[in-house]
Every structure is written in C-alpha cells, then in structure tokens.
Design a protein that fits this description.
Layout lengths: L5 H9 L3 H23 L12 H41 L18
Helix pairs in contact: 1-2
Length: 111
Amino acid sequence: MTMLTDAILVDRVVAGFEGDFEELYKRHAGTAWRVAQAVTGNADARQPTGTGATASTMRDVMASVRTDFAEANQYVFYGMAIALAVGFLCALRHPGGRGGTAAPDDPPPAG
C-alpha cells in the first residue's frame, strides 16, 4: 500500500472516509501530545539532575513554581471572563449599524 500524504488523507476525511482519520491520528497523536504538554507547562515529569546545591534547590522549588503559575492562571481566566461579560453587555446595549458617517447612497470604499 502506498503512503498517502496528510493533505490527501484530510481530503478523504472530509469526504467521509473515517479510517483515514484514524491514520492521521496515529501519525500525529504523539506530536500533538508533546505540544500540548509543552504549552501547558508540563512538558515532562523529569526532575533536574545533578548533585549540587542548585540542582537540589530546583528539585525542591519546581512544584511550588508550577502551583504558583496555576493559581495565577485562575485570576487571568477570571479577568478574561469579566472582560467577555462586559463586552457582551456593551453589545446588547449597542444601537446597531456600522457607525460610519457615510450616507446610505454612497458606495462602499474600494479595497
């Protein structure tokens, strides 16, 4: 069997071939998992190696640093939720229209 490119597999998935989605998943699941772990800050569970004072301190501090970032993310998400709610309320109160000063008979700007 010939190896199909990812682009061909995607086209086939869109056409309804479910087996091709499984092939795409098999090809890229590991990479997607590694990217997700890197983005979330949990790239791996390895501890720093070494026997010096710096390595020992880093091993002791890593859990606390990760916890601090997780707690900070909580407040970032709360802030984003509040901003979304304010934007929604502003959208509800907005009278509509495009807000321009052009008369309705004027053609739209080119570009």
